[in-house]
Amino acid sequence: MARLPIIEGDDVPAEIQSVFAGAEQLLAFVSNATRTFAHFPEFARWAIPMIASIQRGGADAMLEPRVKELAVIKTSTINDCFF
Fold first, then answer.
1. Which of 32, 51, 52, 76 is the one with CA 20 to 30 A from 65?
2. Is residue 1 in some structural domain?
3. 8 Å CB contact between 31 and 23
């Protein structure tokens, strides 16, 4: 069970709507992590661009695809995930 629920729906305060709009613009969707970060909009405004810059692909990516995949493999290994 989540300790902090995700924020769902369209009936949210304007400050949270702006967080969702920023995530939509940077990531092309509003992730569950963003919906959780939105409980703390100041943190979300800092974290979402950082996550987007790491996850983004293409010429403006901060990490090479090889490095991203190595991070996924290492994290999965640490967590005993065999996916």
1. 32
2. no
3. yes
Between CA 4 and CA 79 the distance in angstroms is 22
* Predicted local confidence at residue 1, as pLDDT: 60
Contact 42, 24 (CB under 8 A): no
Q: Is residue 19 assigned to a domain?
A: yes
Q: pTM value?
A: 0.65
Contact of 62 with 53, CB cutoff 8 Å: yes
Number of folded domains that form the chain: 1
Q: Residue 33: which domain range?
A: 14-78
C-beta separation of 28 from 22 below 8 A = no
Q: What confidence tens digit (pLDDT) does each residue in 53-78 have?
A: 777 766 666 777 788 888 888 888 99
Task: Single out the residue of 24, 13, 23 nearest to residue 47, CA to CA.
Answer: 23
